[in-house]
Amino acid sequence: MCRLYGFKAVEPTKVECSLVHAQDALMAQSREDSEGKSHSHGWGVAAYSDGLPQVDKQAWAAYHGEHFRKSAARAYSKTVIAHVRQATVGPPGLDNTHPFVHGRWVFAHNGTLPNFDLVRDAMIESIDPLHRSEIRGDTDSEFIFRYLLSLWEHEPGRPLIDTLGLGLERIIACCRDIDQEAPIGLNVLWSDGDRLVGSRLGRTLWYLERDGIHECEICGGPHVHHPADHDYRAVEIASQPVTDEEWLQVPNGTVFNVDPDLRVHFKPMGPAESLGAIPRRRADGLK
User: Fold this and answer.
1) Cβ contact 246:25 at 8 Å
2) What is the dihedral angle through the alpha carbons of 21, 26, 27, 32, rounded to the nearest 10 degrees?
3) Is residue 120 within 8 Å of 185, Cβ to Cβ?
4) Domains of the chain and any CATH numbers
5) How, if at all, do strands 52-58 and 187-191 pair?
6) pLDDT tens string 153-164
7) Fewest C-beta atoms under 10 Å: which of 7, 118, 263, 264?
8) What does each C-alpha distance from 131 to 32, 46, 84 come to in angstroms?
9) Lowest mean pLDDT among 23-32, 64-73, 185-194, 238-247
10) Do residues 245 and 44 make contact, with C-beta atoms less than 8 angstroms apart?
């Protein structure tokens, strides 16, 4: 279990209130989420500047000390991905702390792949040797990231949402081949700064589309630096609603992307039966 936060806007925007000051801000969720669970095993914030992600992360709780607050206050960007961790696969430690980064790419995961030792053996041969050599931690999340990057590099012209869907469907099939009934958690956020895609499977995930300047219910400000008549759109994505606005649930068993007009579009992860138990396939279906 972890908690995710994603943000995409037409222009740089401050996200400090969503990360720190709101009633259900990510920092508050790190202490106790809506289900009463703590996510105290690390945190990370990735905000894009001049096309590259600036990443700050630590292996302690976001609610400990001022470091997370200061990192959140500096996050002023069109695209932000943040994460607080509850360790399931891999112990607490900086190498296991999200978001994971490769060049322009940023990735964060909420969930768990069951029987990961066996799933990892099936995945590893399908990960490009370069990405295999750059794996530093023990998490299922980092393996998922490197596998998705390998898929994208094999066919970079394919829409990113389709690469994500294909990769996750194959990972799910591999998990089901090992244990048909074991629950799978696959909420992810993946971005290169321009594109933002994600998924929901087995965990809660919400989104909010904003049209026009938003006067923050916490600080009273707009979080942007321009006149109020300027065209503005944004999307926020979070494991649980951060504000009192009308958040919508991301449909379970879907992948999604945020388009250039800042609208969220969904696609099912394969056939309808994949939402329950995917028919057994060979573990080498990843290849």
Assistant:
1) no
2) 120
3) no
4) 2-282 (3.60.20.10)
5) unpaired
6) 999 999 999 999
7) 263
8) 35, 20, 24
9) 23-32
10) no
